[in-house]
User: Fold this.
Amino acid sequence: MNRNKSDALFEKASKLIPGGVNSPVRSGKSVGTTPLFIQSAQGAEIIDADSNRYIDFVGSWGPMIVGHNHMAVISAVESALKRGLSFGASIDLEIELAGMIADAVPSIEMVRMVNSGTEATMSALRVARAATGRDVVVKFDGCYHGHADTLLVSAGSGVATQGIPGSPGVPEDIIRKTLSLPYNDADAVHRIFDKFGRDIACVIVEPVAGNMGMVAPDTAFLETLREETRRHGSILIFDEVMSGFRVAYGGAQERYGVIPDMTCLGKIIGGGMPVGVYGGSAELMRHVAPEGNVYQAGTLAGNPLAMAAGIATLTLLNKDGVYESLEATATRLVEGLRNAASEAGIAVQAHSVGAMLGLFFTDTPVRDFETAKTSDLDRFAAYYRQMLENGIYLAPSQFEAVFVSTTHTADHIDQTVAAAKNVMKTL
Ligand code: PLP
Assistant:
């Protein structure tokens, strides 16, 4: 495949933007490639600057669950566009999206719209700390919750890909307030609450982890989080920025029947526009200014175009059979990848939850960050590069999830599996 135009653009970008990318996860450094520059996308397919066409399993890192350029989403945005780009004032669309989210997500009565997942988790922590009068935050190794200082401890996603344990620039004092435990380890949760329960403001978790590759939770682990936080008066925060509206319409909390105190959302609820949300019971959310005294604000929060794209996307998702069909697509892909690996005599762990999946090159069952890291990263890099050559666009890191959309057809999946069969034989 010729990538001359992408390469030339990357060279220019590298002089103006650190690493040539506006988010480190886009860099192909860990897999020995340079980023593609994108020209356009339609449905499940994405086209680069050199007019190469790929089947896209990144979906803008999750938001594009109804496919790229969906007519209903585009026309909703066009209608909003005609009213104006931004007013920094209240609009009807904010109420409509807030209502759809509150109807869908069991833990949410009230929401505050923000502009990114990072802002959502950062603000949820502030509410939790204010409501409890405590400082300590418990998180889990390999979970990524955006780049707020408190949460950049043993984070997954780009932090794991670049092999950065914490981050320079985050003060030691802040790191001391964050305790990071192994994912899916209920005993570790019991122990930490026995020891520090009275100081713990909140536990924040990806209820389906997607930032160390995709790792499914044990229901008992999520239930333990619910019990221990309740017993000790701590707030349980589900970071459903990735899993929200992806593993079920009501997110992981609907799927696993464990209801947190607060929920963070992003990605899908903005349909591809910048957005984030944090929400919970009215009692908790009334701490937020101007009703309460926890300060949080945003010039562009509740932006009309983002609200319109979100409403249109959720409307498309809230129809009979959508999640069954997404799940069937993900299952078909997982089974195909397992068969491809087994034909090639390669050990893999492949699994899906709803419309997201993970593939690890290891014979160790993957249930936390330690076991995710047993994946053969060189093998993943070779797999990534060759899949790209075969027209399959994956996230350039072992520690990211694979996303399917309603526009991935059986044909797209079968083409992907056929490519994987050829590629895996060479690994
Ligand atoms: N939380 C989770 C679970 C995420 O996956 C991400 C981003 O990938 C974030 C938070 C941060 O969201 P954003 O990149 O919109 O700041």
Remarks:
- The pocket of pyridoxal-5'-phosphate is lined by residues 61, 116-118, 121, 144-146, 157, 206, 210-211, 239, 241-242, 266, 276 (CB under 6 Å).
